[in-house]
Amino acid sequence: MSTGPTPTHHRSRTATFAAAAVLAVAAPLAAAGPAVADPNFPSTEGETNTASIASYDDLVAELQRLEDTARFGVDVQTLAEVGTAVSTSESGRDLYVATVGEGPEAVWLQGRIHGNEPYGTESLLAVLKELGTNGSPDWTLLRDTYTFHVIPMYNPDGSELNIRHTILQDGSNSRIDLNRDWGVGKFAAAESEAFYEYWTMVDPAFAVDIHHQGLKREYGTGDDVTLSLGISLAPGGPTLPGVEGGAYDVLTRQMHVHVYDELAKYGYVNMDRYQVGGSLEIDIKGGVVSAMMLGLDHDGLNPEGHSNPAIFFETSGNTSDGSLGQKARGKSIKQNVVALQELLTGMATGEVQQEDPARWDEIPHAPVTGYQTDTGVIPVP
Question: Which first-to-last residue range defines the signal peptide (predicted)?
């Protein structure tokens, strides 16, 4: 793997694809009519078998294979090779990033910040394979427009333990949610320090974070939801309208409107908006993508106040509640890959920026009663 120099801002691109995921997404994706989700997607039959989930060793091996076989210059590095001050996980595992593309703007793609949410890793490995090998016009456009920085396994320790958190190795054995650890007075975990510094090196134009949620049904219809579309600082909420003059409040909604329209063509995908507590929009500031939008300056590493819009996807099913859905594994990965491809292509062509942000309200959701913040619920006025 490369031991090249620290990446310069907006000059290297990453995307990742796992060997198992290749088979899951290799077949052409047939468009269908209005989405009607498979009622067994994901399946709750049987217990979750983690043997088929990509391990840390699987990740390292697949990244090496992709770097060796890519037609278009996939560059795999550890953060130690990049040169961040902190470069390993709490347990000492190397933290990996992959870059691909020659475009002037950087894009940040991350997955598995929660260790029990595995398909982010495989989805990003699948996207990386396409970026590294696919010579079609769409993928060529993406490589020419952007430099991708892909982090397929943000939380290797939690992934190996199949838990949401990482565990501090300072003698306390404290469990830290890495997606609540980018904030003033936080950064308790080594992974947070490492990837934050890398973010300040990259200065991405935008970011996407891939998650899982538990099983969910659509408000009003009771249909199974396969994918929820999320923004961690609620559009129109207490925070986002005041960021960058409201620009991210608009663009993040446009991004998801575009994804919603494009994925509605696929019959196995049924989408809604991500909410918690039945009817609350999230407005948390300690999440990684929230801190990106807020332009967090930690330890003087972001004095210029770089910020970027960011969204997340939530695939239904996770290993914690035994609802991962082995039988729908290929579909779970594929919907993330298609969502990313449609979003990235739409951003590159400018289609996303032409979407009507007000149509965010058309994406199925429960009537909003309040905002879940880091310190409690703020009711809707």
Answer: 1-37
Check the CA dihedral 192-50-231-9 and report its sign: positive
Topology adopted by domain 19-379: Aminopeptidase (3.40.630)
pLDDT at 14: 32
Cα–Cα distance, 128 to 16 (Å, whole number): 3
- Give this prediction's pTM: 0.90
Centre a 10 Å sphere on the Cβ of residue 156 and count the other Cβ atoms it contains.
26
The fraction of the chain above a pLDDT of 90, given in percent, is 80
Residue 363: per-residue pLDDT: 98
Residue indicated by tokens 């998650």 = 211
Burial class (CB in 10 A: 0-12, 13-18, 19+), 350: exposed
Say which residues have a Cβ less than 8 Å from residue 27's Cβ, sequence separation at least 6.
Answer: none
Where would I find the H helices in the chain? 19-25, 56-69, 79-82, 119-133, 137-145, 156-161, 190-202, 247-263, 288-294, 329-349
pLDDT score, position 333: 92
d(CA 124, CA 341): 11
Q: Note the pLDDT of residue 47.
A: 56
Kindly give the parts of the chain with pLDDT less than 70.
Answer: 1-50, 325-327
d(C-alpha 167, C-alpha 250), whole Å: 37
Neighbours of 250 (CB within 10 A): 20
pLDDT number for residue 106: 98
Tell me the C-alpha distance between 172 and 90, whole Å. 12
Nearest one of 8, 70, 15, 27 to 343, comparing CA atoms: 15
For 185, residues 6+ apart whose C-beta sits below 8 A from its C-beta are none
Whether 49 and 167 have beta carbons less than 8 Å apart is answered as: no
211 and 114 in contact (C-beta within 8 Å)?
Answer: yes
Q: What pLDDT does 329 receive?
A: 81
Q: Which residues pair with residue 209 across a beta bridge? A: 110, 312
Cα 138 to Cα 237: distance, rounded to the nearest angstrom: 35
For residue 160, CA distances in Å to 18, 19, 54, 173, 334 come to: 17, 19, 9, 16, 23
How many whole angstroms separate alpha carbon 267 and alpha carbon 269? 6
